[in-house]
Write a structure and sequence with these properties.
single chain, Rossmann fold, eight-stranded mixed beta sheet, 12 helices
């Protein structure tokens, strides 16, 4: 994946983009990370998917990762939804070298994790004509209040000592032994960037105290959805993913055993294969 930056609505936004691969099918695929994370969190999954589709893009949400972090914004789900729609509409992002300028007008597949899943669902509700398929991984959006571990995560983000962050991240995993100190260090480095704590707190408040009305979700039942969750997720427990599956009639639920809040990081090959089968219709 190649790092890129673009000016969008006067803010610099970082994103990663796959190289075009021989025989991969033209299809826009967008990965949206979770709260306090970045596009790098997806590891090799976007690149592996580029064997089947192109272009694959993983964005750093405004306020996170290597994107600008203005403290003048209210980081609401509605704002993030507009940001993603504007990002999708930017043809420069999706065009590969050597392609015709008219070859980038196709619907987008969105893969969203946690907060990114909430945003992806909101984008689909408001712009059904933009989205071909949805993949929601341990998605927020059904929470009526923060879970205890989410409260601990907020505290760790605002007071980012190594031990605070390590303790929370270990609880997010199905197997705490998998946590590498580099993950902790990388988070602390990001959250200490100017504007990062403000963006985290604002996004946290806006995403944990307001949830998607089921009647809104039902409007997107014509969009095929894959719901993936870790069986041992303590941050956003399985019941919330099951609720998405109940409301979205055109959806399937895959629970990945012995994994926590980011099953794609703990068992990437299993999660990739679940996604591949869904996105390619098992072809």
């Amino acid at each position: 994946m190649k790092e890129n930056k673009i000016m969008l609505n006067d803010f610099q936004i970082r994103y990663l983009k796959s190289e075009k691969r021989y025989n991969s099918k033209k299809k826009n695929v967008l990965f949206i990370h979770g709260l306090g994370s970045s596009s790098d969190r997806w590891w090799d999954i976007p690149d592996a998917l580029s064997r089947y589709f192109h272009p694959i893009v993983a964005v750093d949400l405004i306020g996170f990762g290597g994107s600008d972090k203005p403290v003048t914004l209210d980081y609401t789900i509605e704002y993030f939804s507009k940001f993603i729609k504007d990002f999708i509409d930017c043809k420069q992002i999706w065009r590969n070298d050597g392609e015709d300028s008219d070859d980038d007008s196709c619907k987008t597949i969105i893969v969203g994790h946690s907060l990114g899943g909430y945003i992806a669902a909101k984008v689909a509700i408001e712009g059904q004509d933009l989205i071909e398929k949805l993949v929601l991984i341990d998605s927020s959006g059904m929470l009526k209040e923060p879970t205890p571990l989410l409260e601990q995560y907020l505290n760790a983000a605002l007071n980012p000592s190594f031990e605070n962050v390590k303790n929370v991240f270990e609880q997010m995993l199905g197997n705490p032994a998998l946590l590498h100190p580099m993950i902790v260090d990388a988070f602390i480095k990001r959250i200490n960037l100017p504007g990062a704590k403000y963006a985290f707190k604002s996004a946290f408040d806006n995403s944990t105290k307001k949830y998607i009305d089921p009647s809104e979700l039902q409007r997107i039942e014509n969009i095929p959805a894959l719901i993936i969750c870790g069986a041992a997720d303590k941050l956003i427990p399985v019941a919330h993913s099951k609720r998405f599956n109940e409301v979205l009639k055109n959806s399937q639920l895959q629970i990945v055993e012995n994994t926590g809040h980011a099953p794609f990081a703990e068992k990437p090959s299993i999660v990739f294969d679940i996604m591949r089968i869904f996105l390619t219709d098992n072809k």
